[in-house]
Every structure is written in structure tokens, then in C-alpha cells.
Design goal:
This protein is α/β, with parallel strands linked by helices. The protein is 46% helix and 16% strand. The chain is built from 15 helices and 11 strands. The chain has helices at 2-23, 35-56, 62-66, 85-101, 119-127, 145-150, 168-179, 198-208, 241-244, 260-265, 277-287, 310-327, 329-336, 338-352, 357-370; strands at 70-74, 80-84, 106-112, 135-141, 159-163, 184-187, 193-194, 214-222, 229-231, 257-259, 292-303. Strands 3, 4, 5, 6, 7, 8, 9, 10 and 11 form a 9-stranded mixed β-sheet that branches. Strands 1-2 form a two-stranded antiparallel ribbon. Strand 3 (106-112), helix 5 and strand 4 form a beta-alpha-beta unit. Helix 1 (2-23) crosses helix 4 (85-101) and helix 13 packs across helix 14 (338-352). The longest helix has 22 residues, at 2-23.
């Protein structure tokens, strides 16, 4: 038993050494331009590959690695490595082994308020991540006593911060932001959950795109009374400020990974908003010229069940959107003029009146007459750089 454990440890060290060697500064030994370099590279692969093969009880021959289809391996530093497909598969497995054991620099923040029926799924989805977080911070936002006691089961794996009064999700996240030790922050609402690759893929994306301040992803919204919906509320490239004013563009908080320095620079979330705080955050973030980019892959399950009244919720959103438009009226006017404010509010009002037949008919008629067209004003300067530049 001791020999097996010792052998596994050696394999892990070998895998980690190979992983960091490939991800480190460019090494001419790994360049495939010359036969000598290729043979040296294959020798390196063979040593590590056979070590891993001995643990899983399978014999892998060198000829299986150097023959068959080839693939270009993107190293993430601007260099590309052409190598056999099996070697690529091994690199992926090796990288994941290193990610699962190497220290992480991602802090996870979960605001919590009387959600004991959902918090298990949320926390377990974080613990099941391929890339383990540096820390999990649960901010108890003044929950009732029973709900607070329920969190004690996670005291060994999470940092639990208790707020005396309920301040809303924005205030709870801000408390976690100021306590976070990681270079990156990933947010997760207590009723949502992640797929296992979420942190791994987003952290890698941030490493490969240093100009990016935040990254979102596609989400799978699930309901109690209808089929799941796939939401991809972003396009190619960064979300611009002009796009952040359109309701179709959106970053669900549970999908966001943000550089801690950028989050602090933006001032966190506006505590005055208990809903739509994500829209306000996007507008301020993009207005400061920071890039939010997206990974078009479902990495989050977004819960849309348990709301007491969908119609009531939509009306609440409409009135909060009025506040947001008024607060950021200068931004709306600069990009679209008065028409931009009208378009944004009419779009929200159209959804809010969906279940009120007569009012909805009137709003529908207004929308047909006005025609919601988003035309950027002449001379508008977009603060979000669409080209590649270093993150500051």
C-alpha cells in the first residue's frame, strides 16, 4: 500500500513538472522544427507517459504516440506546438492533474440569505471543480437562526462571514470582495451551481487574455414549469458600453470571474440595488473601459424557480430599470440619445405587461409604432477597447 502511494506521488510530481515545463518560457528542446528536437521531446513524453501508464495499469508504446493524426497545441504564450493527438490528450490530462493540486488564486464568493434548500448544490459544485479555489467565502446576509446554523456543516471548508442585518446581494458580495485573498474572484449565487470545468476554463481564459478584466459564459436557465433555456447574452469580442445598454446583453453574476484589482477599481456592486445590480455593474465597468468577454459554453446552471410571482418580479425590474436609466442617463444619451433610454424602458415594460392582457396590447402597439432600433449617435466614442491591449 505504501509503495502504491509512493508511486502515485512520483507520477503526480512527474506530471506537474511536465505541465509547468510546457507552460513556462519557450524551450527550444520542445520546438518541432528539427528531428533532434522532436526526438528529445518524444523522450520527455515517453518518460512521463509510461509513468502514468504504470499507475492506471495500461502499457503505452512510443510508436502509439508518434504515429497517427497530429494536432496543433496552443501553448497560451503565442507559440504553437504540433504534436501527435495522443500527446495532446496526455497534455490535457497532465494539465488537469496539476490544476487539481497546484495552489489556486481564485476566491469564490457566495452571498447567502435563507437558502438552506439550495446551498448544498452550490457549495458542492464549487468543491467539485477541476480547478480548486483558493477559498470559498459564504457571506451570511442576516439569515434567520435556523438557516445560519445550516451553514455550520461547511465551517471546515468555507470561510463564513456573518452580517448582523440584511444588506442585499450587492452588499454581501462587497463584504466578500474586501475579504478575498485571490487575484481573481468568481461569484456564485446560493441557488445556482457550476459545472466542474467552470473555474478551470475561465481561469485559463484570463491567463491567455491579459487584456480581459472579466469573463462570463453561457448559462443554462432551468424552470419548474417549462423546459431549460440556453442563454448566451454576449457576442464575439468584449461587451461594449453601447451593448451593455441593451437588455439582450447581460452577464449573470454566477457566470462572472473578475480580476480582483478591476473589481476593487470599479467599487464593487452598488448596494442601493437589490435587483438589477448586475446591469448597473456592467454599465459602470464598461464605462471605465474594462473588458468583459465571454466563453460560449454552458458552465452555469441558473435557477429560475421559486419566485412567488413572475409578473410581480418583472414589474419590480421595470421600476428598478427606471432608476438605472436615470442614474446613467448621461451614458445612454451619449451613445443613443433620448431614444436609447426610451428603447431600454419600453423593452422592459413589454415583458412586465406580458400577463396583463389589455395593458400589454397597448404597450405592444407603442412598440410597433416606435420600433425599437438601436442607432449609435454620430461622434460616439466607445470606451471599451475592441483591440488587444494589456490589462492595467
Amino acid at each position: 500500500m505504501a509503495d502504491t502511494a509512493h508511486g502515485s506521488e512520483n507520477v503526480l510530481e512527474t506530471s506537474k513538472a511536465l505541465f509547468w515545463r510546457l507552460r513556462g518560457p519557450w524551450n527550444s528542446e520542445l520546438h518541432t522544427g528539427e528531428d533532434a528536437n522532436r526526438n528529445s521531446r518524444n523522450t520527455l513524453f515517453e518518460r512521463s507517459w509510461k509513468a502514468c501508464a504504470s499507475v492506471r495499469g495500461a502499457e503505452v508504446h512510443a510508436k502509439e504516440k508518434v504515429s497517427g493524426p497530429h494536432r496543433v497545441w496552443n501553448r497560451g504564450d503565442g507559440r504553437r506546438l504540433r504534436c501527435p493527438q495522443l500527446e495532446v490528450d496526455f497534455l490535457v490530462a497532465t494539465e488537469r492533474a496539476a490544476l487539481m493540486t497546484a495552489p489556486s488564486d481564485v476566491s469564490v464568493i457566495i452571498p447567502y440569505y435563507n437558502r438552506e434548500e439550495f446551498i448544498d448544490e452550490a457549495v458542492q459544485s464549487v468543491l467539485a471543480q477541476i480547478l480548486k479555489p483558493l477559498e470559498i467565502i459564504i457571506v451570511n446576509d442576516g439569515s434567520r437562526e435556523f438557516s445560519r446554523r445550516y451553514l455550520d456543516r461547511y465551517a471546515d471548508v468555507c470561510t463564513i462571514l456573518d452580517l448582523k442585518t440584511n444588506v442585499g446581494p450587492s452588499g454581501a458580495r462587497n463584504v466578500g470582495i474586501h475579504k478575498a485573498r485571490g487575484q481573481f474572484i468568481a461569484f456564485l449565487d446560493s441557488d445556482d451551481y457550476w459545472l466542474p470545468e467552470k473555474l478551470e476554463l475561465q481561469r485559463r481564459y484570463m491567463e491567455e487574455h491579459p487584456e480581459c478584466s472579466a469573463v462570463t459564459c453561457s448559462v443554462s436557465a432551468f424552470f419548474s414549469d417549462r423546459p431549460d433555456q440556453l442563454w448566451t447574452r454576449f457576442g464575439p469580442g468584449p461587451i461594449t458600453l453601447a451593448q451593455a445598454m441593451i437588455e439582450e446583453y447581460w452577464a449573470v453574476p454566477s457566470s462572472l470571474m473578475v480580476r480582483t484589482s478591476a473589481m476593487l477599481g470599479a467599487g464593487g456592486f452598488d448596494q442601493r440595488f437589490r435587483v438589477c445590480e448586475d446591469r448597473d455593474f456592467m454599465l459602470r465597468f464598461c464605462a471605465a473601459g474594462r473588458r468583459i468577454e465571454g466563453i460560449p459554453k454552458v458552465l452555469v446552471r441558473y435557477r429560475r424557480t421559486g419566485q412567488s410571482s413572475l409578473t410581480e418580479h418583472r414589474w419590480r425590474l421595470f421600476f428598478v430599470h427606471i432608476r438605472i436609466v436615470w442614474l446613467h442617463r448621461a451614458l445612454f444619451y451619449r451613445a443613443y440619445g433620448i431614444r436609447g433610454m426610451v428603447n431600454f424602458l419600453l423593452g422592459t415594460l413589454y415583458k412586465a405587461t406580458n400577463n396583463t392582457t389589455y395593458i400589454h396590447a397597448v404597450v405592444k402597439l407603442i412598440v410597433r409604432v416606435v420600433k425599437l432600433k438601436w442607432r449609435i449617435r454620430a461622434g460616439y466614442h466607445e470606451p471599451v477597447p475592441c483591440g488587444v491591449q494589456e490589462h492595467t
